[in-house]
Amino acid sequence: MRNIYIIGIVFILLLGQPAWSQNVSATSRLDSNAMLIGDHLGLKLQLNCPAGTQVIWPSFNDTILGKIIVIGRSKVDTSFSKDKKSLTLTQKINLTCFDSGFYTFPEIPFRYRLLPDTSVKTALTGMSMLKVNTIKVDTTQVFKPIKGPLRIPITFLEILPYILLALALIALVFILIWYVNKRRKHEPLISIRPKVRLQPYEKALQNLEKLRTRKMWQEGHVKEYHSELTDILRTYIEEGFGIPAMESTTYEIVGKLRQDSVFARPLIDKVDQILQNADMVKFAKFTPLPQDNENALNAGVEFVNQTIKPLASEPQVETMNRTTQKPQS
Amino acid sequence: MVETDIKALNERIQRESAFVDMITMEMHKVIIGQKHMIERLLIGLLANGHILLEGVPGLAKTLAIKTLASTIEAKFSRIQFTPDLLPADLVGTLVYSQKKEEFQVRKGPIFANFILADEINRSPAKVQSALLEAMQERQVTIGDQTFMLPEPFLVLATENPIEQEGTYPLPEAQVDRFMLKVIINYPDKKEEKLIIRQNISNEIAMANTIIKPVDILRARAVAREVYLDEKIENYITDIVFASRFPADYKLKKFEGLISYGGSPRASIYLALASKAYAFIKRRGYVIPEDIRAVAHDVMRHRIGLTYEAEAENITSEDIINEILNTVEVP
Known about the structure:
The complex is a heterodimer of chains A (329) and B (330). Chain A is an alpha+beta fold.
């Protein structure tokens, strides 16, 4: 027991004792001089040297002294002094030991060169002492079973894939049920809301009413008003009667209507009148009377209304059906 | 220009354009049919633009120009373009006078109000250039002296499309200087019969001189005042741009078939010719019909076709037709 105290005192004296070689010093310091068996302990290696020194850092095997196990090493950390003249290199080594007893760490050599001197010199750390304590066993107690491994708490990221998988499975089940129901009822899988395509006359009448409500000529936009009025009527003639009115002049449109006898003569005269008046407004700076502006629109509405008959049919409904439907029996 | 101005302009046009009917009447005394050609000659006269007439021999090209000149009390020159013609034969030269012991300017036939350049493609490029320079600059330099050409100065050139042997086709840059290129077609059966009757009778039809150059200049000034709305300007630029960038005007099929489209001269001449056409129609403003009426004559020699187009028998007429049928009318 007395020997143990002596060794302990020597260990304490040696701990942290720097090994000086010129202005290069190497130290090794254990976090503690004693540790419990299987516990972790840090060993800090440090070398102080002038900046520019070439150092061969000591390397360790997996064990020190055959019993102390090296379980981790940090990278060698470099820090300069404020005047940048000296350098401190540090490394932390994690150790553990599963054999109780006293251990004496030998001096650890740091090889270096102080340039321009190319000779290799060695700086040694001091020796360190370590006592590895064992656990006291109460032999009077009964033997207990070996304790199982500790459980690590489960994180959300670990269970996320399982949650997603479960959701996908639920969704798949729902889709299958929905699909089977649709098939059973012979319904289309995806039905886009029916888009009613307006007949040319409906579109024309709608646009003419919109033009009326915009009160363009009342606000002084007479030219724009007549341009829009004629555009509505030309679009109507083009879409309704297949005459390329948007790319034709008034003379050509009226000529084509007369040639094909699409309408009765008075109706053609009416549209001729509207288009010619609009041409005067658009191209000759003609300013019609307010009543004439209103009359032009009324005449346009009347023209469309009187030419509905040859075009009228059931509105066309566009439905997109992406299933391969079986015909209903 | 306000509405009242256009009304006043319409009245002026009514007054100033009276001669149009008279010229047409006088020309129809001599020329049977060819209404389109006569109308285009009047457009050139009113818009101050030179005209290139193209047609097979015997379609009264030369006669039409001679007759037009004879209805106006103006100086007329006819120059028959031949391979040995020299620029000096056209513009004039310096001749040494032994009596005065100095060089004297002898002006060429180009110093006239109306020039009939007959078969312009039969002369080499140097002669064509001399004429075309005079057409553009409206002046001629002989020796160290520059002479202004008289006003009105109108060149009416003819060329024959079938006899290409020994001809010098006009380069694109020079053809571009003609405001209109008018294609003359055969008369119809009825007109052909009248032509026979007129030519076998003992009476020789002659056109009377009815107006003076000053009347033409006054009419030109009025024709220039014809109102051209911004919508019409947009229509003109759309037509010309469609010939340059057909894909932008739903004419992707013409990409690769047009080597070059209408130049800015095409836009200018479309505007001027449509104004003149509106004047002839006694209108003080231009409508889209006017543009369409002159579009072919203004554009046909300003659209270049690629070899692919020629291989597919696509002509500039086809392209212009398609452009007019595709570009939206205002």
